[in-house]
Amino acid sequence: MKRVFLVVLDSFGIGALPDAHIYNDTGCNTLRSCSTSDKFDLKNMKKFGLFNIQDTNFGEFEQNPIASFGRMAEKSNGKDTTIGHWEIAGIVTEKPFPTYPNGFPSEIIDKFERLTGYKTLCNQPFSGTEVLKKYGEQSMREKKLIVYTSADSVFQIAAHEEIINIEKLYKICEIAREILCDNHAVGRIIARPFIGSNSENFTRTTNRRDFSLKPTGTTMLDLLKNSKKDVISIGKISDIFANTGITRIIKTKNNQDGINKLLNIIKEKFNGLCFVNLVDFDMLYGHRNDIDGYAQALNEFDEKLIEITQNLREDDILILTADHGCDPGDISTDHTREYVPLLVYGPKIRAGVNLGTRESFGDISATILEYFGINNNKFKSFLGDVLK
User: Fold this and answer.
1) Reduced to 3 states, what is the DSSP secondary structure of residue 68?
2) Could you tell me the CA-to-CA distances from 296 to 30, 199, 301 in Å, in that order?
3) CA dihedral for 243, 249, 254, 255, sign (positive or negative)
4) Measuring CA to CA, which residue among 240, 229, 235 is closest to residue 262?
5) Residue 100 lies in a domain
6) Which residue intervals of the chain are DSSP H helices?
């Protein structure tokens, strides 16, 4: 019985891509910024070979890494969560999703207000925490929705849980998903519920939900499911893929919850893929320029890595990677265009193989599909390099 555990450390980039300047991300490096924190201490990922990866010129080189290691370039145009995950699963996005640096056009907002029955506030790019400080009390008082975006292709809707309940907010997001199509097909509609009594104590809750576009082609998940393999989603994976190609959905509240649910699944019997997203790195720390918080969250995962590896079975493969960067040391609070790490471990995986620089995140999909005997020629599998 073969199992692959694919863990996306959301936004854990390891250095600017050659075209980063096009995205105003020259010199960005999420890993390097985190390494400047006194809280940074990734003992176990170091043993995997994290600091042996090309151009990682900080951190201690591991003489005898226990995993295979490398880095991956993004072939798609963009630096969005959806685009990154889709490429990992085998879809290259040639045309970036639309973004709205000046807010959404009136025809979109007017139609949204008409179909939902709610007036809106803001309609600008905004930090998710700052937008609550500025508009939260007015939103409660006037029973209006806070609509905002970012440098990414997102239409975010914030509402107080006691004013607009969760299910109603999700329905509103579904309406927005239907409106934002064709030339306005943003990558994600995001429900951003919050609680609190005033601008000093507003807090976003764990009831966030993403309403993504459906993948534009056949993904690794579809091919696995069609071959009667299990495809288990932990975290927001099911949202990112609009529930397609997935056989079991497990929601999470935060990184720790996601890690615990991964550990539970490792102890179960299944045949296929467990696809995990740990979002706190990005959502709580990268976007808030919190270097210490990001470093501490990495440490917490790193400590659990021992328990994860100890529970792997003979035919299991563990792959650690990311979907983009979100450099907490950057002057912006947006995603950053970066290489992502590729760390591959398992009882039957060769130790210390340098996988170099992969041309696409999609090489992961080719490798996983080959492991399960499914033909796929779109990308370059590295299974033959790492399998004993």
Assistant:
1) strand
2) 13, 27, 9
3) negative
4) 235
5) no
6) 30-35, 43-48, 81-88, 106-116, 128-142, 166-179, 220-226, 237-240, 255-266, 280, 291-310, 363-371, 383-386
Statement: residue 280 has pLDDT above 90: yes
Q: Are 366 and 376 a contacting pair, CB within 8 Å?
A: yes
pLDDT tens digits, 159-192: 999 999 999 999 999 999 999 999 999 999 999 9
Q: How far apart are CA 116 and CA 317, in angstroms?
A: 46
- CB within 8 A of 117, min separation 6: which ones? none
Alpha carbon distance 168, 56 (integer Å): 47
Same domain, yes or no: 114 and 74 = no
What is the number of domains present in the chain? Answer: 2
Query: Please, are residues 1 and 314 in contact by the beta-carbon 8 Å criterion?
Result: no
DSSP state of 310: H
User: What is the tens place of the pLDDT at every residue in 60-75?
Assistant: 999 999 999 999 999 9
Contacts of 128 (CB under 8 A, 6+ apart): 148, 156, 158, 192, 204, 287
CATH, residue 143: 3.30.70.1250
Contact residues for 167 (Cβ-Cβ < 8 A; gap 6+): none
Regarding whether 280 and 371 lie in a shared domain, the answer is yes
Question: Of 212, 230, 245, which closes a domain?
Answer: 212
Q: How far is CA 171 from CA 142, 175, 214, in A?
A: 20, 6, 17
Of 55, 85, 51, the closest CA to residue 335 belongs to 85
Tell me: the pLDDT tens digits for 332-383? 989 999 999 999 999 999 999 999 999 999 999 999 999 999 988 789 999 9
Q: What domain range includes position 196?
A: 106-212
pTM: 0.93
pLDDT value at residue 57: 87
CA 371 to chain centre: 24
Task: Assign residue 313 the CATH number of its domain.
Answer: 3.40.720.10
Same domain, 139 and 240: no
**Looking at the chain, how many residues does it have?**
388
